[in-house]
Amino acid sequence: MSFAKMLPLMLAAAPVAFVQPVLAQAPVGPAANITTQLPRGAAPSHYAITVTPDAPNLKFSGKVTIDIVLSQPLPALVLNAADLTISDVRLTPAKGKAVKGSARIDAAAQTATLDFGKPLQPGNYKVDIVYAGVINTQANGLFALDYTDNAGKAKRALFTQFEAPDARRFVPSFDEPSYKATFDLTAIVPTGELAVSNMPVRASKDMGGGKTQVTFGTSPKMSSYLLFFGLGELERATKMAGATEVGVITGKGNTGKAQLALDASAAILPWFNDYFGVPFPLPKLDNVAGPGQSQFFSAMENWGAIFTFERALLVDPRFTSEETKRTIYEIVAHEMAHQWFGDLVTMAWWDDLWLNEGFASWMATKVTDKLNPDWEMLLTRVEGRERAMGLDALATTHPVVQKINTVEEVNQAFDAITYQKGEAVITMLEGYAGEDVWRSGIRSYMKAHAYGNTVTDDLWKAVEGAGATGLVAIAHDFTSKPGIPLVKVDSARCSGGNMMLRLSQGEFSRDRKDKAPLSWNVPVKAQVLGGQAQRLILNGQGQMTLPGCGAYVINAGQTGYYRSLYPQANVKALAKDFTRLSSIDQTGLLADNFQLGLGGYQPIGLALDLIDAVPAAASPAVLAEVPGYLSSAYTMLEGDKAAQAKVAAYASRKLTPMIANIGYDAKAGEGPQVPVLRSALVAALGSMGDNAVVGEANRRFAALASDPAALDGPLRNSWLRIIAQNADAATWDRLRAMANGAKTDLEKSATFALLGAAKDEALARKALDLALTDEPGKTTSAAIISQVGGEHPMLAVDYVLAHRQQYEALIDVSARSQAIARLGGGSADPAMATKLDSYASQHLTPESRKVVDRSISAIKTRIETRARLKPALISWFARK
After folding, report:
1. Contact 452/180 with Cβ under 8 angstroms?
2. How far apart are CA 526 and CA 361, in angstroms?
3. In what order do the strands lie in the sheet with 182-190?
4. How confident is the model over 875-879, as a mean pLDDT?
5. How far, in Å, are 616, 657, 658, 684, 732 from residue 663 at the CA level?
6. I need a surface site. Which of 61, 329, 637, 684 has the fewest CB within 10 A?
7. Band of pLDDT at residue 785, cut at 50, 70 and 90
8. H or E stretch including 133?
9. Which of 27-66 are b and which e, b meaning 16 or more Cβ less than 10 Å from the residue's Cβ?
10. Which of 193, 335, 423, 696 is catalytic?
């Protein structure tokens, strides 16, 4: 018996008994104060689904029996359905005979109205539906991913992606998070292929004719968007983590590349079980790797069957960088955190999406830091905070808890405010409550709402109830109000061995400084370097007395979500005492002051002086931040080659000694952060055309002719990007040949994407034309176009607008309203803002143009900032 044929039996051998706990709520649908787009009064309690995929023809057939409770009379049943055709409907009351009905599809509303000839009375019913659907080629609903296996043969695997509103493309259903139910899934599949779902296989039956019927165990009560199905020539590797079997599922021959993910899962799960106080309730937890990619997500937290694209899960020693390895670990942790925050306890409606994503992001950073302390992962919270503030400083921002009314608004809600601001606010609130009180509140929240739905206030009340007095008021401010508090030190003086600070509060903004600032209850944590930290809840104005005299910080530990504006004398004192700051305060100080300079709150030269003062003896993790700031200055001077040359010359003087110290290749015994620093240095200097780095890239690329392994290592893709950016026609063609000759799909997709990075406009056009062919692969083409957008945004946007239908076939349905805005959003051309606005006015509704409007705001702000700062930047770098 082949290994593939044994896999369903192996899965079946896992324990499948699942005892449903006492439910937190009866199946009556969303509460009166919770949004729904379906008529109230009907709710499912159980689905029994049978699906038969026809992968070669990209279609499937299905049938479902839904147990439904009616709490009030209804003229008909309305379910969600998209891209489905319904051929038969029958309704059976708890006591009575089946009644045949009819189905009316409303494609625009994504609903199916089931009419049975007369009004339905309250009670319990079974609804049987026979239907058919399509298998997509992008990640929506049931979708196919084509790839080449390790033997060079063309293969096709099937997976599902249902968040936010795409379970309705797989089964007629109550496809909203409040309509929780249990699921039985049966699939009729080609014999020998591995089928996977949320639960282990309960039974497998040979149907003859090369078909096998696979039945999975009954799921716990969950929202429809968490259902999962996968199918293909796959294999599985497992470990035990306590009573839970954790696994990785990949294409045949690739489970070894998922060892990092498997080991991470086994280490993280016990830690989460303890932290949440509620053990993971399913018998198994798989990470399922799919070939290809999406431009808009990497992984999905399906309960017990996390789906992740290979590039975010597999490690290839030939080219996987250290940063990618850490990202893989953190993605595994993020999706596992969702197994509690999102899956066990689910937001009642998409207004509170941040409850899923912000918390999972926070928890992923936390557990990764706890289990890998030498990675200094807490420093990444500053980077995440900055990403959030990049949106939050513009007038087009939105609160963490945002009002969602339509399906399209759901799709646009997955942004840095939801993820990174959510994480930053939770970090601040945990700092306010204290780790023990915070964890106690989380445990209470989990136990109280298991298998149910919540709103944000349920979490705040649980934490305050655990002992964090006053937390609700702070939390409400930071989740219900958009924007960024600005904490200003109005005066500071030393008196009696203490620093006496007077603070006031404003609002940090990049494009609306003339508006009346909002106010927040801001938890400020301040200290003199080396002194004891003091705390204050600032609303308006306040005073602090800090033990000791000297340089001070007012966001010690960087747990606060606010900008810190100091007198210039203190910034200079902090620069002088830079090494006395903790690494996270060093990182936060650099970020704050650079953004304050961009925003016009202080001279940009002050931030550049601080960057200049970062000593070579600083932590490699902090040194790795410096190249990014210099790259930003270089980009801000776009169009002025002479000015950019001065930035590049300074960057070479500042950064080349760091490369000389650590070398281009890893050394035995080097610190854990050195690979991250090396990558940042090579990427930045390469992008600025540094002769030594570009020369090294060319040398290694030329060596491929005699040594196929000349580029192998964690910097392979960094070297290839430098080659691609500076490519001539012959080099570009050679890269294309390398992509086509790649040994794995993972390498193939990465190399193809780089073809879009060429600075040469003719080659960029060639890359765009290539993207519309079948050569790169259906999920790689959009990545090529995205790369062109990074270097030539107007070219990419014009091309996509001219080929809009073809382009939209290359991206997820849920992201189509955002894609063009993302392509052009990094521009500093006024014509781009006009073009995006025209596109949105013509093709988008007011609700679906939010991402476009954010991009337009960013472009206008970027134009203003560059014009204002250009003289100061030129002057500063000329002096250096």
Report:
1. yes
2. 26
3. 77-80, 111-115, 99-106, 84-93, 123-134, 59-70, 42-54, 182-190, 211-216, 201-208
4. 96
5. 15, 10, 8, 15, 28
6. 61
7. very high
8. strand 123-134
9. bbbbeeebebbbeebbbbbbbbbbbbbebeebebbbbbbb
10. 335
The 3-state DSSP class for residue 394 equals: coil
* Residue for token pair 């349905």: 813
Is residue 309 within 8 Å of 746, Cβ to Cβ?
A: no
Q: For the beta carbon of residue 320, count every other beta carbon within 10 angstroms.
A: 22
8 Å CB contact between 803 and 810 = no
Residues 151, 745: Cα–Cα separation, whole Å: 12
Asked if the bond preceding 424 is cis, omega within 30° of 0, the reply is no
From residue 748, alpha-carbon distances to 292, 316, 363, 745, 783 in Å are 10, 12, 33, 5, 12
- DSSP code of 303? T
Q: What are the CA-CA distances from residue 133 to residues 114, 126, 194 (Å)?
A: 18, 22, 21
- Phi, then psi, of 357 in degrees rounded to 5: -80, -45
d(CA 548, CA 531) in angstroms, rounded, equals 6
Residue 773: helix, strand or coil by DSSP?
A: coil
DSSP codes, 666-729: --TT--TTHHHHHHHHHHHHHHTT-HHHHHHHHHHHHHTTT-TTTT-STTHHHHHHHHHHT--H
Residue 335 designated active-site: yes
The letter for the amino acid at 489 is V
**Model confidence pLDDT, tens digit, residues 77-97:** 999 999 999 999 999 999 889
Q: Quick one: which of 313, 311, 260, 266 has its CA closest to 285? A: 266
Sort 606 into a burial class: Cβ within 10 Å, 0-12 / 13-18 / 19+. middle
Q: What is the CA radius of gyration of the chain?
A: 28
Query: In whole numbers, what is the pLDDT of the chain averaged over residues?
Result: 93
CA dist., res. 271 & res. 333, Å (int): 11
**Lowest mean pLDDT, pick from 24-38, 505-519, 566-580, 682-696:** 24-38
Measured in whole angstroms, the distance separating CA 733 from the mean position of its chain's CA atoms is 33
Q: What are phi and psi of 593, to 5 degrees?
A: -70, -35
Confidence of residue 390 (pLDDT cuts 50, 70, 90): very high
Cβ count near 670 (within 10 Å): 14
Residues 733-755 have a mean pLDDT of 94
The dihedral sign for the CA sequence 777, 781, 784, 786 = negative
Alpha carbons 594 and 586: distance in angstroms, whole number: 12
Q: How many helices (H) and strands (E) does the chain have?
A: 29, 28
Residue 4 to residue 767: CA distance in whole angstroms: 39
- The terminus-to-terminus CA distance of the chain in angstroms comes to 71
- How distant is the alpha carbon of residue 757 from its chain centre? 23
Tell which residue, 652, 710, 653, 707, has the closest CA to residue 685.
Answer: 652
User: Please, is 804 exposed, middle or buried when counting C-beta atoms within 10 Å of its C-beta (0-12, 13-18, 19+)?
Assistant: middle
Distance CA 141, CA 152 (A): 28
